[in-house]
Amino acid sequence: MFKHFIKLQWKSFIRAAAFKSNLAFSIFLIFIGLYFCATFLMLGVGAYFIIEDLELGDPLTIVNSFMIYYLVADLVMRYMFQKMPVLNIRTLLYQPIKKNDVVKYSLWKTVASFFNIMHAFFFVPFSIVLITQGYDPLGVLGWHLGIFALFYANNFLNVMMNNLDSIFYPLIALMLALAVSQYYGWFDITAFTQPVFQALYEIPWTAILPWALLIGMYLASFSYFRRHMYLDAGLATKQAEAKTEDYAWLNRFGNLGTFLKNDIRLIRRNKRSKTTVIMSVFFLFYGLFFFTQSVETLDHPTWKVFAGIFISGGFLFSFGQYVPSWDSAYYPLMMSQNIKYKEYLNSKWYLMLFATVISTILSVWYIYFGLDTYLAILVGAVYNIGINSYLVLWGGAYIKTPIDLNSNKNAFGDKQAFNAKTMLLTIPKLLLPLGVYMIGHIFIGETAGYVMVALTGVLGYVFKEKVFRIIEKIYKKEKYKTLLAYSQKN
Amino acid sequence: MINVQNLTKKYGNKTVLNMEHLDIPKGQSFGLVGNNGAGKTTFFSILLDLVQPTTGKIISNEVDVNNSEAWKPFTSAFIDESFLIGYLTPEEYFYFIGELRGRNKADVHSLLSQFEDFFHGEILGQKKYLRDLSKGNQKKVGIVASFIGKPEIIVLDEPFANLDPTTQIRLKSIVRDLASNQDVTVLISSHDLMHVTEVCERIVVLEKGDIVKDIETSEETLRELENFFSGSLAN
């Protein structure tokens, strides 16, 4: 039976329309995966000695005290990135296949996920180092197996909380609050959790407890899946009560307003696009890595420009990248209605413009780190509006992945709310301004660097009409291929 | 109004559409009949410039649809659910199409009021997004939306499929009304021979991409079509 499932899965993978055009991407993703493995491996080998060198205390104790954050971060990552194991369950329901088999296969498929294996690259070498450094082998084994079970428990927990935004976001908020209060020394949660993890080492047989938890989680997610395998339960799409919204204030923009209205509704009423907005809010805090001097190598003006572009352009990158895929479900309508490409693209451009301006205003608190810091963000915003807005629209013409706007509506949905490809495409958009800044910085000075980046942005804006004509041509040329690719979703 | 010249569409070696010549005069109600894979939807898609022809062209009201977008203002269509925007309420969708076609809310409402029977109280004011409506109700929305803005050419692919019997009868009378208007050219495809013969003045039968029959509808048409299709069954 499982043989059939695996065959189906493989076919859906290699026959996807997106696969052919994105082979290069797939290879690139594999490299990113390998990079993560290598990083974890190095951390696993090196963590012990790094902690020892920094004289923070007993390495195992330190690792254990951060373990709670590690576990929660893992859960957050999974919630946002890990795809749910969906075979096409609906079509299998009335086939002579035992429901239990379908559920079992779906669950076991998650076990082999990269999200689980990744951690082994840290924990296996770390445990080996512990043993070679004279820790009690039995204790290390107990600890290792216990932690191992906890990560897998996370895996199954994620399966169950797939659609529980109301639990998920408060959980993040709680953890952030705990982290902050630990930083300021108000309340230290690790004082309570650290001994729990430490006990796995001190009393190895306690590793049974996480394993019991894991088995419990597996059984719970099994019965959760099993119980919800009905068309009107887990496989049903939830219906929200709809309210007609006017946005009459946008009418003054004419045809542009018509599209903007729709884009606002698109963002507000679909899970996938909402996630994008939330991601761009996270981007607002990205600068903290750069401006707090917490990471030494990042404490250079060039990185400030880099941060500035990300802070002001979070939405531009995460949303703009997928123009026109956002409209993939009704692209034939858009292409046959009384719509000019230019108006369509222009409305997306204005949307990104507004978002960039809002992000820039919201990030005004960076002035706390110095005026030049906020200057870097302003410069980044100008560059984003002048250059990057075109680049994302341009790149979007080639991304022919249809977006299922409701994809993460239920536990069995395919949730690729945020795609690694989006991140990858942003890289070329960042190198150019950094280069421009460097040239200005080296030959004249810091301010000249900023001015040059901003001027590049302004220059880009001046040529807007011209660039739009080029992009329009590309969209027209790609139109038929795009329509074909979008139609493959159904 | 619509003039087809040497139109072919090939996928690899397979010819899915081959229309040497076809003229559809203004105001005609035109029916397209054929089995699955006969090329009906492909023809409509080329007419709407959603698919590129391999050779030949369609001239719609003196516009070559593959080279200019000038056909868009006077053409409207409902092919399938990809013509609906799932996250809008029906009202918002009608307004959206209205705005694209230069019609304000009042215009849209006065048009919609003519279709209250057709909607059967299941479309307007339902507090539902289009994606949450049933297939049949979605179809009603799409069909009526294609009437907004006084289009001169209306293309409907399989409009009768998925509709309940009452709605089918109402739709027939709506299409007949449209057909009696000499400014509107209606193109309909259907599997249902009875429906098309009732509403179309002219019926073209496609088989594997070729035009095999071109008939003015008369009393005899239904029988002729039935004979034709049962004949192709016998072969």
Mean pLDDT score of chain B? 90
Q: Biggest interface, which chains?
A: A-B, 34 and 35 residues
Q: Main sheet of chain A?
A: none
Number of strands of chain B: 10
Folded structure, characterized:
The complex is a heterodimer of chains A (490) and B (235). Chain A has 490 residues and is mostly helical. Chain A has two domains: 226 residues, no CATH class; 237 residues, no CATH class. In chain A, 72% of the residues lie in helices and 0% in strands. In chain A, α3 runs parallel beside α7 and α15 crosses α17. Chain A starts with a helix and ends with a helix. Chain B is an alpha/beta fold. Chain B has a single domain, classed as Rossmann fold. Helix content of chain B is 34%, strand content 26%. Chain B has a six-stranded mixed β-sheet, sandwiched between helices. Chain B is globular and about 45 Å long. Chains A and B meet through α12, α16 and α22 of A and β6 and α2 of B.
Structure keywords:
heterodimer; A: 490 residues; mainly alpha; 2 domains; 22 helices; globular; B: 235 residues; alpha/beta; 6-stranded mixed sheet; 4-stranded antiparallel sheet; 8 helices; 10 strands; 26% strand
Secondary structure: elements and pairs:
The complex is a heterodimer of chains A (490) and B (235).
Chain A: H1 2-14, H2 17-21, H3 23-53, H4 59-81, H5 89-92, H6 99-111, H7 114-132, H8 137-160, H9 165-183, H10 190-202, H11 208-227, H12 255-269, H13 271-284, H14 288-291, H15 301-320, H16 331-336, H17 341-362, H18 371-396, H19 420-425, H20 427-443, H21 446-462, H22 464-487
Chain B: E1 2-11, E2 14-24, E3 29-33, H1 40-47, E4 55-60, E5 63-64, E6 75-78, H2 90-100, H3 105-112, H4 116-119, H5 135-145, E7 153-157, H6 165-180, E8 185-190, H7 193-199, E9 202-207, E10 210-216, H8 221-234
Parallel strand pairs in B: 3-8, 3-9, 6-7, 7-8
Antiparallel strand pairs in B: 1-2, 1-4, 4-5, 9-10
